[in-house]
Amino acid sequence: MLLCWAKAQAQTDFCNTQNTSFKNGERIVFKVYYNMNPFWIHAGDAQFVVHSELFENKKVYHITGIGKTAKSYDWFFKVNDKYESIIDQETLLPHRFIRNVNEGGYKIYNYVSFNHAIGKAVSTNGTFVIPHCVQDVLSAIYFARNIDYNKYKPGAKIPFSMFLDDKVYDLYIRYVGKQEIETKYGKFKAIKIMPLLIDGTIFKGGEKMTVWVSDDANHIPVRIESPILVGSIKVDMMAYENLNNPFTSLISKKK
Question: Which of 76, 141, 197, 225 has the greatest number of CB atoms lying within 10 Å of its CB?
Answer without folding.
Answer: 141
